[in-house]
Amino acid sequence: MSACPTGCGRSVTLGNLMCAPCWHRVPRELQTPVWVAWRQLNKAVTRGLDERAIRTLKREHAEARAAAIEHAKACVVQRELFA
Ligand SMILES: [Zn+2]
């Protein structure tokens, strides 16, 4: 278990990007790219695609994750401000 990257104070199960309440605040248009990039990356690794292709997919996945975390972080800040 590690701390949720949004700073909400909850912990995250290993393998998850963030805790469930934070993830549910992320809109679908930001969630979908995370899933898509993750699936593509897994497929590429399984099929043994070349390192450059995998690097590109890893970057796309990291960017999609960062966008989702950014959004969830903003939600946490808002909640603190308006609590
Ligand atoms: Zn959280």
Structural description of this entry:
With 83 residues, the chain is mainly alpha-helical. It contains 3 helices and 2 strands, in the order ββααα. It has helices at 20-25, 28-47, 51-82, and strands at residues 2-3, 11-12. Strand 1 (2-3) and strand 2 (11-12) form a beta hairpin. The longest helix is centred in the last third of the chain and has 32 residues, at 51-82. The mean pLDDT is 94. Zinc ion (ZN) is lined by residues 4, 6, 8, 10, 18-19, 21-22.
Order of helices and strands: EEHHH
Number of domains as seen in the coordinates: 1
Low-confidence stretches: none
Query: Counting H and I runs of at least 4 residues, what is the number of helices?
Result: 3
- How many DSSP E strands? 2
- Helical coverage, percent range: 55-70%
Bound molecules: zinc ion
Query: How can the largest sheet be summarized?
Result: 2 strands, antiparallel
Distance between the termini: 27 Å
From the helix content, strand content and strand pairing, which structural class follows? mainly alpha
Mean pLDDT: 94
- Cα-based radius of gyration, to the nearest Å: 14 Å
Overall shape:
elongated
* Strand percentage: under 5%
Give, in spatial order, the strands making up the sheet with the most strands. Answer: 1-2
Write the layout of secondary structure elements.
Layout: E1 2-3, E2 11-12, H1 20-25, H2 28-47, H3 51-82
Antiparallel strand pairs: 1-2
Helix pairs in contact: 2-3
Entry keywords:
2 strands; mainly alpha; two-stranded antiparallel ribbon; binds zinc ion; 5% strand; 3 helices; 70% helix; 83 residues
